[in-house]
Amino acid sequence: MPFGNVNVDYAPCKSVGALKAAAEYMLGRQKQQVESGVKKTDIELYTALGCNRENFANNILVTRKLNGKSYSKHKKNTILAHKMSISFHPLDNVDHKTAFEISLDFAEHFIHSKGFEVLFAVHTDTDHVHVHFLISNCNMNTGRSYRRSQKDLYEMSEYFGRKCLEYGFTNSVRDNFYNHDMGRQKDKLTFGEAQMKKRGAESFKDELREVIRIEIADPLNHTFDDVILGLKEHYNVECRVAGNTVSYRHPQYLNKNGEPVSVRGSRLGDLYTRKGIEYELATKYTRSHAAGRIVEPVAEGAAFERGRPSGSRGQVPDHATARDCGQALRGVDELHPRYSERAPRDEREPTAPARLAGGVPAKRKKRHR
């Protein structure tokens, strides 16, 4: 499956000044650009959808007013517009007109058709042809903010990759999806979790995040399946994988009906999804390889020798092997003392009843009465 280079690793425009500066930069109209003779684009290589291309900033500010969306220099966190870019490889010798045609189709498909104004320009001042997009953060019809999830970025990269192949730009695509700002993703906290964190409390989701990070960092884990296996063997965290979706079940957290609760990785944060875990494993591999101390990863389901995996844990076929793998790592007590205290009591006291995770505040327990 081909993927194109879609970059969203840009700071959004949070003021009118930043918005106008971004538009002027894209069109090569900043004072320093004009004085230095830099020509960023040509008149036939930029346009806007949903508004006037020569007055993009003022147009989207009017859209905000019509939809009751206020903005002020005193509201520093108000996002007025988002930035994005797509780029082609220099070896493909992409002509600017073709880049404009692909960009127009891309902007219409993913942005304007969803009700958002967008300005884009093909830049001609570098060896690699690239296109900048400036997207209004206010929907023309509903006033809602522009949202771009991990899934949306995946679909954009896939769509752009297919377009590149249609035009024969084989150097501009890659086999694997790569999100430029994956490594900068933050944990997704609900309002309740944020309040708990302010009080220094810990939720069951925090515990899940921590043990997942521990398994990702473990030097014996090279694949996604290794991480899932480690979570089960070392922390008794049940994982359910369906395609690209993974859900985790805390061994001690129960809902008000006394039933175990599962949470999707996307609810914890993008780094706890299948793609996030694979990204972190690939990053770990790259760092280790650069340091000259990498154990080459093996294929999923690799053969075992004498009850132990070669190079990776892979799929453990029986309990005996699973115990060997646990010993090959370190004990749970070493890895995570706090989680060990909350580990399933049936491993130590089979008759003891389950209890809520220690990080769940007393207030939640009262609400379940």
TrEMBL record:
Region annotated Disordered, chain positions: 302-369
InterPro entries in the cross-refs: Endonuclease_MobA/VirD2 (IPR005094)
MobA/VirD2-like nuclease domain location: 39-168
Biased composition (Basic and acidic residues): 331-350
Pfam hit, one: Relaxase
Name of protein: Relaxase/mobilization nuclease family protein
Source organism: Ruminococcus albus (strain ATCC 27210 / DSM 20455 / JCM 14654 / NCDO 2250 / 7)
